[in-house]
Amino acid sequence: MRNTAWYSRFAKSAAHFCGRPRVFTLAVAVIVAWIVTGPMFGFSDTWQLVINTGTTIVTFLMVFLIQNTQNRDTAAIQIKLDELIRATRGAHNALLDLEDLEEETLDAFRARYEALAAAARAELTKGDFDTGTPEP
After folding, report:
1. Nearest of 55, 48, 133 to residue 89 by alpha carbon
2. A Pfam family this protein belongs to (predicted)?
3. What's the mean pLDDT in 55-65?
């Protein structure tokens, strides 16, 4: 647990730092410096290998940092949505933790809500309102 908390704090800080304009500017400067040095090194294979290796390493590491922050953000959003469902009178508590259900169950829920949406659109074309709370 302690290692996970450390990694989460590190990933959050690193992702926040890497998303700043200064870091982007630094990355552009590195690429410009690499391009400018091309003629000095005769556009050699080693010259190309430097940028390829560097960008591959940075990309590989950033994928894990981004995925960690995205997972945490998604989990927080799901908890907030669950709380809104729980606290709303008339909301269907069966929709809590929907993201953890099997694909077939999700498809069944989706089909019910798509049918509700189609019915609401049909009501709109008749000039009626679509603000009711029909049961799925």
Report:
1. 133
2. Iron_permease
3. 94
* Confidence band, pLDDT 50/70/90 cuts, at residue 114: very high
Is residue 92 within 8 Å of residue 136, measured between CB atoms?
yes
Q: Phi/psi zone of residue 43: left (φ > 0), alpha (ψ -120 to 50 degrees), beta?
A: left
| pTM score of the predicted model | 0.67
Query: Considering only CA atoms, which of 62, 70, 82 is closest in space to residue 14?
Result: 62
The ranges assigned to domains in the chain are 2-91, 101-136
Rounded Cα–Cα distance for residues 10 and 76 (Å): 18
21-35: b (≥16 Cβ within 10 Å) or e: eeeeeeeeeeeeebe
